[in-house]
Amino acid sequence: MINFSRFSLANGLRVIVHEDRSTPLVAMNILYDVGSKDENPDLTGLAHMFEHLMYCGSVNIPEYDLPLQLAGGENNAFTNNDITNFYLTVPSENIETGFWLESDRMLAPDFSQNKLDIQKSVVTEEFKQRYLNQPYGDVMLLLRPLAYTIHPYRWPTIGMEVKHLEKVSLENVRNFFSSHYYPGNAILTLAGNIKSEKAHDLAEKWFGSIPGRALSERRLPVEPPQTSERNLTVERNVPADALYKAWHIGPRSSNDFYSLDLLTDLLAGGDSGRLYNKLVRGKNLFSEINAYITSDIDPGLIILSGKLMKGTDIATAEKAVNEVIDELKDSVLTDNELEKVKNKFESSTVLSNTSILNKAMNLSMFELLGSIDLVNMEVEKYRAVSKKMVKDSVIRYLTRENCTTLFYLSSSTR
Q1: Under DSSP, is residue 293 helix (H, G, I), strand (E, B) or coil?
Q2: Residue/partner pairs of 57-62 with CB below 8 Å, 24 or more apart
Q3: CA neighbor of 253 nearest in space, from 380, 364, 381, 81
Q4: How far is CA 221 from the centre of its chain?
Q5: pLDDT at 225
Q6: To pair with 253 at 20 to 30 A between CA atoms, which of 82, 88, 109, 153?
Q7: Would you state the pLDDT for residue 330?
Q8: What are the angstrom distances between the C-alpha of 138 and each of 49, 161, 266?
Q9: Residue 269 Cα distances to 274, 276, 312, 327, angstroms
């Protein structure tokens, strides 16, 4: 059980506090409700670049990392389709340093053309190294725009293409900041050795004077249902052929989320997953195979990926994958299989909740989803999934007409 209290400042900042006196540390997590889905389709990658820019100092604090390191703390951040998340941990007696740093860059980051040029170079190089210059790196640049036709999930967080990053201007940066980085669009969570009263006083002291503003309405295009198969074949200089499949599912808040999440573990949850047992260990068609749920706030995807064994025909491999999936439509799921993946989730949740940082992140995310109490109900939700619920989810979502397939072929074997 994660106990917490919550309050809001007059400027709209939501604050959540989880007190854990067993640790000498405090984790501070600040989630901004902005991700790559909030970008202009002609200027993608800006949310991720902005994560980098937020570490370039503020008007009053020229270097973010040094004061935190001197206080014994450490920090990091990430951006995805839906959010941008900054976090730090610091000894509890120095937590005010965290408030000082985070409030100042929410109020007045120090943007300049020189800093922008440096970060454009850094992010552009990251794009090339991770997505263009390594085997299978461009998969999501191909699969996402094939699966999505109009929703902004059709590009990855890094952006759609390098030229979008290269043309970001200082005006774009300033407009993006003013549109998304303000108290009412943020959730501040503290977990660890801090009392709620102290958190309230420090939040008022450091964030209370930041001007509030009305939340801007988010108007994203709704992805239409997929009604027919989509396929793309590419050749690349990679060691082996690979198969990628994606099926549309509902949002993170969907009632089907829990059964679909367990389904991916049933299919590819390590050595005990059906796909691994049948197609890697059994038929020796794949060297590796995996499946996961994207857990997006808007309707997301189940994504399956597998590297083929040399000499395996990709059509044969795809047929074998479809056969394994179809088996789950025929009520052959056993009680032991389902119990195993439920136990796996429960144990991973218990382990995750030993970390104050994980608890801070989870509290922030469930607050954003509008159901913070779910942080203590997740295990119960997964436990309630039945074999029939899994079967119904397979029948509803894992259909041929709802499937997008990328055949990623090795040019060196042809």
Answers
A1: strand
A2: 57/109, 57/110, 57/115, 58/104, 58/105, 58/107, 58/108, 58/109, 58/110, 59/104, 59/108, 59/109, 59/110, 60/104, 60/108, 61/100, 61/101, 61/104, 61/105, 62/110
A3: 381
A4: 20
A5: 97
A6: 88
A7: 82
A8: 19, 10, 27
A9: 8, 8, 23, 17
DSSP string for 147-194: H-SSSGGGS-TT-S-HHHHHT--HHHHHHHHHHH-SGGGEEEEEEES-
Helix, strand, coil: what percent of the chain each, to 5?
45, 20, 35
pLDDT of residue 413: 63
286 in helix, strand or coil?
Answer: strand
For 23, 82, 96, 229, 240, the CA distances from 206, given in Å and listed in that order, are: 24, 26, 9, 53, 54
What is the DSSP code (8-state) at residue 109?
Answer: B
Supply the pLDDT for residue 414. 56
Number of helices (H) and strands (E), helices first, in the chain? 15, 11
Encoding tokens for residue 232? 């793309």
d(CA 100, CA 27): 14
Q: How far apart are CA 216 and CA 208, in angstroms?
A: 20
**In this structure, what is the dihedral angle of CA atoms 289, 45, 58, 169, given to the nearest 10 degrees?**
160
The CATH number assigned to the domain with range 230-413 reads: 3.30.830.10
Residues 6+ positions from 128 with CB-CB distance below 8 Å: 162
Q: Could you say which residues of the chain have pLDDT below 70?
A: 413-414
Task: Give start-end residues of each CATH 3.30.830.10 domain in the chain.
Answer: 5-207, 230-413
Which residues are CB-neighbours of 108 under 8 A, at least 6 positions away? 58, 59, 60
Could you tell me if 16 and 363 are in contact, meaning their C-beta atoms sit under 8 angstroms apart?
yes
Number of alpha carbons in the 13 Å side-chain half-sphere of residue 27: 27
Q: How high is the pLDDT of residue 236? A: 96
Spatial distance between the Cα atoms of 87 and 30, rounded to a whole number of angstroms: 6
In residues, how long is the chain?
414
Please provide residue 261's backbone torsions phi and psi, each rounded to the nearest 5 degrees: -65, -45
Instruction: Give dist(CA 143, CA 157) in Å, integer.
Output: 13
CA distances from 157 to 43, 55, 86, 97, 298 (A): 12, 18, 16, 30, 15
Give Cα 140 to chain centroid, integer Å.
14
Q: Which helix (H) or strand (E) holds 105?
A: helix 95-107
Q: How far is CA 45 from CA 69, 119, 174, 403, in A?
A: 29, 12, 15, 26
CATH number of this structure's domain 5-207, picked from the four choices 3.30.300.20, 3.30.830.10, 3.40.50.200, 3.20.20.360 = 3.30.830.10
